[in-house]
Structures are given as structure tokens and as C-alpha cells.
Amino acid sequence: MARDVLAVADRLRNEELARRLFDAVGRLPGLRTVRPSPGDPFEPAEHHWDETRSTDDPAREDTVAALLAPGFLGPQDELIRTARVAVYATGKSEDTP
């Protein structure tokens, strides 16, 4: 059921409604939300690189710039969905993974 609700939330143009659906899925019993913060290292096993944000600071290279949509882990810590993130990269244009 969680995967179905997430698929609907991903297609919504209304960001507030999508956020509410993500929050509701995060409250389902046994699920854990994956919410990387800006500055966290990009982890391909748990994050999906959805956008690129350019930076001149090499220390920010391959770190999370923004959370676009949360990810979720199941009761046995199995990945239900990766968190969608924007990632800093030097010398790259916006929206280029």
C-alpha cells in the first residue's frame, strides 16, 4: 500500500498535498522515514540524485543540497523507496545528475 500511495504523491502537482501524503506514509506502522539533511553525504543506496546544484566549494561536492521527497524503509530496514535529493557538484549546471 505504501508504494501505491507514494506513486500517487510523486505525480501530484500540489506540493502541500504531496507532503501530506508523504507524512501519512511515514506514520504507517513499521515504516521509517529517510530524510537526509543538507550537507549530509550523498548515499546512493538510500538517495536518488534527482537534481544537481552547482557549487564553487569543493567541500560540498557530492553532498545533499536539498531534500526533494523523503525515502522510506520497511519493518526489516528494507528500502521501500529512496529519498529524492538535490546534490551539490562543482562545475555542473542545474538539474544535471
Order of helices and strands: HHEEEEEE
Gyration radius, rounded? 14 Å
What average pLDDT do the residues reach?
Answer: 88
Low-confidence stretches are none
Structural class by sheet pairing and helices: alpha+beta
How far from one another are the termini? 30 Å
Globally, the shape reads globular
Q: How would you summarize this macromolecular structure in one to three sentences?
A:
The chain is of the alpha+beta class and 97 residues long.
What do these coordinates show?
The protein is an alpha+beta fold and 97 residues long. 23% of the residues lie in helices and 33% in strands. Strand 4 (71-73) and strand 5 (79-81) form a beta hairpin. Helix 1 packs antiparallel against helix 2. The model has no long low-confidence stretch (mean pLDDT 88).
Please name the defining characteristics of this protein:
97 residues; alpha+beta; three-stranded antiparallel sheet; three-stranded mixed sheet; 2 helices; 33% strand; globular
Write the layout of secondary structure elements.
Elements: H1 2-11, H2 15-26, E1 32-34, E2 47-55, E3 64-69, E4 71-73, E5 79-81, E6 83-90
Parallel strand pairs: 2-6
Antiparallel strand pairs: 1-4, 3-6, 4-5
